[in-house]
Amino acid sequence: MLVKKVEQALRLAEKDEFNAFIELYPEAVEKAEEVEKKIEQGEGGKLAGLVISVKNNIAVKGKKLTCASKMLEHYTAPYDATVIAKLRKEDAIIIGSNNMDEFACGSDGTTSAFGPTKNPINPSLVPGGSSSGCAAAVSAGIVDCAIGSDTGGSIRCPSAFCGVWGFKPSYGAVSRYGLGDMAMSLDQIGPIARSLEVVENVFSVIAGEDEKDQCTHNFRIEEKKEVKRVAVPKEALKAEDEVVKGLELARERLELEGIATEEVEIKEMRYLIPIYYLTVFAEFASAMQRYDGLRYGKVGEMEDYALDSAKIRAKCLGQEVKRRIMLGTFITSKEQKNAWFRRAQVARKALKKRFDALFQTYDALLLPTMPTLPWKIGEKSQDPLSMYLSDVFTVLANLIFAPAVNIPIMGKKPIGIQIIGQRGHDLTVLSLARKVVEK
Amino acid sequence: MEKQVINKDEVKHIAELSRLELSEEELTRFKEQFNQILSYFAEIRAMGGSDERWDGESNAVREDEVEDFQDKELIIQNFAERKARFLKAPKAKLK
Prior knowledge:
The complex is a heterodimer.
Chain A: H1 2-15, E1 21-24, H2 28-40, E2 51-55, H3 82-89, E3 93-98, H4 132-139, E4 145-150, H5 156-162, E5 165-168, E6 188-193, H6 196-206, E7 229-233, H7 241-256, E8 260-264, H8 272-287, H9 305-316, H10 319-331, H11 338-361, E9 364-368, H12 384-389, H13 395-399, E10 404-410, E11 414-420, H14 426-438
Parallel strand pairs in A: 2-3, 2-4, 7-8, 7-9
Antiparallel strand pairs in A: 1-3, 4-6, 5-6, 5-10, 9-11, 10-11
Helix pairs in contact in A: 1-2, 4-5, 7-14, 8-10, 8-11
Chain B: H1 8-17, H2 24-41, H3 72-76, E1 82-83, E2 86-87
Antiparallel strand pairs in B: 1-2
Helix pairs in contact in B: 1-2
């Protein structure tokens, strides 16, 4: 039974109608045989039988770790990421790695060096990014769950556009050892699945302190809190009409559960994109220095380190990655850093304070995941600012280290509604999400 | 039209610092995009609080412990050029 399920998943992934996969792991079939026996003997782990794929910026030992970039096309991961080790221990079956925006830089799945991912709901539309292949593989029913990473919405955005669940845990709730970092103060690993139950199960396995990622804490000791009041940012009502309808539906359901949903004006919403991107540019430019064609990138002969490195980087990195490296270099330069980078950090601190205060009154925030429905593939590729602006509702959770979940609300089109909670209250956020879909 | 925050020479300088060899066409395009993006981001100035310090998140620091990595060959395989167990690097020329 399980063997057949895995074989079928590998067949669909091989066909790869939506360009959701980068590499397949055929030995998953053997693992399935082994797990099937364990299940029969009543010895299966917590995730026995769950078929999983992994965003290709998370290390799977002995497998390609490309970050969907030409720079790492031939790079093999020498060890398992902590999340991979934990999934294996509980008998999840990993069948392959997923396509993504190059180095996770993108909001719609179009910046991969290996071609754009397509949206299984409508292949002419973007699937969202940057965990594009993860959400597409889950939405197409190829895998039960995919492990993505989220720096400013990269789990939640594709989940919204592909009509599936996506959870970004609190900063520090899940170890990032083995994750190719994009922006260290914002990155978090989390699950994407078709059901909330799978999200919860996988989260319970991958969460927890890890001495290899010193930002981790054991947050799960905090139990579910009773939710009475939820804030709906007024700015969220400016989203596209159909998205707002989805939000109203979610509100109604929470109200029926006896939870008050109150509109609140949050004027800081307009600063979220600048604060977020200025932080990302700086951290990303720094993280990318290691990709010099020598330490990483088996991509050509080198005679002069500086000259050849600049040539190799120019040849192997895509436009969005170059843009972010350069903007990051600019805003952290001696002459510019006070005007840009430092200002963004001070603003982030003020933002955190504002939301700490808000969470004294409200237990969570309810807002759309994306301000629009998915757009056509290629539509925003020449307009980086408009792409950045589409992250307006997702970046908040990363900036304030909060847990956030995308709830798929499927009508004719996929609409994603988001719940953001207080840092450490991951289980509260998930149980509140359940209330939205229960009735 | 947004005001110019960065000119083409500065974009060229930033490209050098970023170790990216860019074409004229890329430099022109990036200049336009950077001005558009940074003009929008300049809005952040309205948020105030310019003199506050940012100390970041507190770090949980532990002692480093040296462990022997078991799969060295997997690391070595990733070298662009190797000589036995070593990564072969080009000569570093001084300007």
